[in-house]
Amino acid sequence: MDYQNRAGSKFGGGGVASSSATNADRRERLRKLALETIDLDKDPYFFKNHVGSFECRLCLTVHQNDGSYLAHTQGRKHQTNLARRAAKEQKENKGNDVVPGLLAGVQVRKNVIKIGRPGYRITKIRDPVTRQNGLLFQFQFPEITAGTIPRMQFMNAYQQQVEEPDPNYQYFIVAGEPYETVAVKLQAREIDRREGKLWSWFDEDNKEYWVQLLFKTERDERYSAVPGLAPGRK
């Protein structure tokens, strides 16, 4: 900072900086430091929302520009949350390399060479009792890393950064190292998460990952928040 010619300062003495000027200088130094160490395209917590602002998914903060976000990543709050997340993952002892920003249980990625996409089969199903429509997924992971179990997660249109957000769709994500993460685009209908309706199973002998999901009926969606009629969204 240039402290020259400040009120009350001596020539060459550095001068007295105001608190606002000091904060501005600190943010600029943090931004430059972050630019040297962070690639926003690979930051799992960086998200540009539909109004053009930047969000930190880890700290749930909103920033008006990328410089503000970069300065935030070097601040105490973000660094503390990073440490907490790392400690939580270590405590849970999740040995799988999970894709950041996509799947639950975010971990630091290792340099894993991807070997392509898993094979898959999708079958339309209907519950014979409730008449709910659904899908049965079968993914093949013949070369999956030993001890690894595939993981899944649902993502709404505003969480993904591949396509323009369309609220009429949601995404079903499946990952299993060393295969590439795959996503299936679904209608934005509410998933029935009750026991027996949504389930997954990994056949370790045949290296196949099975997932069944059922959509709620129109009546269930309409009255999902009404006690006694249908379970609410979890």
Characteristics of this structure?
disordered C terminus; 21% helix; 2 domains; four-stranded antiparallel β-sheet; 10 strands; single chain; alpha+beta; mRNA processing; Immunoglobulin-like; 234 residues; Putative splicing factor 3a subunit 2
Description:
The protein has two domains: about 1-95, no CATH class; about 120-220, Immunoglobulin-like, CATH 2.60.40. Helices cover about 20% and strands about 25% of the residues. The longest helix has 19 residues, at about 20-35. By secondary structure, the protein is an alpha+beta fold. It has a four-stranded antiparallel sheet with strand order 4-5-10-9, with no helix packed on it. A hairpin with a 4-residue loop joins strand 2 and strand 3 (about 60-65). Helix 1 packs across helix 2 (about 65-75). GO terms for molecular function: nucleic acid binding; zinc ion binding. It comes from Aaosphaeria arxii CBS 175.79.
Mean pLDDT across all amino acids: 77
User: Structural class of the secondary elements?
Assistant: alpha+beta
User: How far from one another are the termini?
Assistant: 52 Å
Number of helices: 4
Helicity level: 10-25%
Kindly report the spatial arrangement of strands forming the biggest sheet: 4-5-10-9
Q: In percent terms, what proportion of residues is strand?
A: 15-25%
Strand tally, please? 10
Element layout with pairings:
Elements: H1 19-37, E1 46-48, E2 54-56, E3 61-63, H2 66-73, H3 76-92, E4 119-126, E5 133-140, E6 151-156, E7 169-175, E8 182-187, E9 199-203, E10 208-214, H4 218-222
Antiparallel strand pairs: 1-2, 2-3, 4-5, 5-10, 6-7, 7-8, 9-10
